[in-house]
Design a protein that fits this description.
461 residues; alpha/beta; Rossmann fold; 2 domains; five-stranded mixed beta sheet; five-stranded parallel beta sheet; 18 helices; 12 strands; 49% helix; binds 5-phosphoarabinonic acid
Length: 461
């Protein structure tokens, strides 16, 4: 496996206004501190996502469960949100299909289709539930806490339909993936005898892609989950080092942090030049935003804003802003060496210069030329960018990429001086929702809600 980071275009030698060699050498101390924080967290057993890759614990049982189960169903529907949905979506797109919800014909003969209901818009939920044949559908209800309102609402709807149509046989069509001990899902699994897999208690939602959260859906659609873990473990070895210069996660995290905090480049764009990696952007956005957008212990709000983009599509959309808008961004290109397919462009109009130069080249040639051109153009305008190249898109590389960004996020948490593992900022909105929906144990939240009142809509048009 090779995953390489070329960060030449982040540095002042290549890009005016880039990170100077002095600043980069000076960052060694900051990284050493972040590394110490990492080591403490690891010793304190807070970073369960690493063990997932290194131990492979539970993988035999998971594969045993997936083997045969997948073939018994034509459709798998994941009910989950945030970290309980973005991992499965990214894995499906990268390793199974380029379209959001389809398998290629050969795979479909053997493996079920995978749908991920990550939102609660009734239009989407209705359309998926109406489309699948319930008697041939397995619902994976995924929630670490086991009580997230959106996922529970989806679960209740799915279970209601299953019971109405299949009676007691509904059991066979539900699997929970949740905390080993806590939460409503765990309780229901125990009480009603529903199959339930564990998300280790020290693995948070957005770090759970390589737990059963990502691995069970992946295994059910035929992704090589052992290779995913092996790729992640290999990458961990590279990222578990005190040496900033040779540690890819440290390089990514430290450069992005330096660019933000010393050069004001606070918007971090993730731009794959590959459709299969498109949903990796969404997964990265959650990881970077929810982990790093925080209030430091001293009271200062910090954190970069991650933005997803797609090459070449966004060259006709956001790239104008990246080129000429405020100097407040970095761009990370995700690039693939060997693509699974390529198409030669026929020479049909050799007499028309606007078309002749394309004839005989391939779509991959054009994609790569456009990416190199965009990187060079951005650099010329003082826009910092780096390129992460994967030799190919397979389970080993994708596992490696997941671990690279998870480790970078932990290091960046140390650099920003925040806890990358919590998300206190989403709590208040959740409490107000409970108050509005009349959750019986949300008495305090209801009191708080009643005290603030929504402002009257006096300013509207
Ligand atoms: O990263 C996180 O912890 C969150 O984004 C969660 O994944 C999200 O809120 C869903 O939570 P849960 O898995 O508990 O339903």
């Amino acid at each position: 496996m090779t995953i390489r980071i070329d960060y030449t275009n982040m540095m002042s030698g290549a890009v005016s206004g880039g990170i100077s060699s002095e600043a980069w050498s000076g960052a060694r101390e900051a990284f050493a501190n972040a590394r110490q924080i990492f080591v403490k967290r690891r010793e304190g057993d807070e970073l369960g996502f690493i063990n997932l890759a290194l131990d492979g614990a539970g993988i035999g049982a998971l594969l045993g469960f997936a083997d045969g189960t997948g073939q018994a169903f034509s459709d798998i529907v994941v009910l989950g949100i945030g970290g309980s949905a973005l991992g499965p979506i990214a894995l499906r797109s990268a390793l199974r299909s380029t379209s959001w919800n389809a398998l290629d014909d050969e795979a479909r003969e053997y493996y079920p289709r995978l749908h991920v209901l990550e939102n609660i818009d009734p239009v989407t939920v209705t359309s998926v539930l109406d489309r699948v044949e319930l008697g041939r559908t397995l619902f994976l209800v995924i929630s670490k806490s086991g009580g997230t309102a959106e996922t529970m609402a989806q679960y209740l709807i799915a279970r209601g339909r299953l019971q109405a149509e299949l009676g007691e046989d509904y059991h066979r069509h539900l699997v929970f993936i949740t905390d080993p001990v806590k939460g409503a899902l765990r309780e229901i699994a125990r009480r009603d005898g529903i199959a339930a897999l564990e998300i280790p208690s020290n693995v948070g939602g957005r770090f759970s892609a390589l737990s059963p959260v990502g691995l069970l859906p992946a295994a059910l659609i035929g992704i090589d989950v052992r290779a995913l873990l092996a790729g992640a473990a290999d990458m961990f070895t590279r990222c578990d080092s005190d040496d900033l210069a040779s540690n890819p996660a440290a390089v990514f995290g430290t450069l992005q942090w330096l660019a933000d905090t010393t050069l004001g480049r606070r918007n971090h764009i993730m731009m794959p030049y590959s459709d299969p990696l498109r949903d990796f952007g969404g997964w990265f956005v959650q990881l970077w935003a929810e982990s790093l957008g925080k209030i430091q212990p001293g009271g200062t709000s910090v954190g970069p804003t991650p933005i997803p983009a797609l090459g070449v599509t966004d060259q006709h959309s956001q790239v104008q802003l990246f080129m000429e808008g405020p100097l407040d961004k970095t761009v990370t290109f995700l690039v693939v060496g060997q693509r699974k397919a390529d198409l030669e462009i026929p020479r049909l109009h050799d007499d028309i210069p606007e078309l002749a130069y394309l004839g005989g080249r391939t779509l991959a040639d054009l994609l790569d030329a456009e990416r190199r051109a965009t990187a060079a153009a951005l650099s010329q305008r003082g826009r910092l960018n780096m390129t992460i190249t994967l030799d190919s898109i397979d389970a080993h590389h994708v596992g490696g990429l997941i671990m690279l960004f998870e480790m970078a996020t932990i290091y960046a948490g140390g650099l920003y001086g925040v806890n990358p593992l919590d998300q206190p900022g989403v709590e208040l909105g959740k409490r107000f929702t409970y108050a509005l929906m009349g959750r019986p144990d949300a008495v305090d939240a209801k009191r708080e809600w009643d005290a603030i009142r929504e402002p009257e809509q006096r300013w509207s048009v």
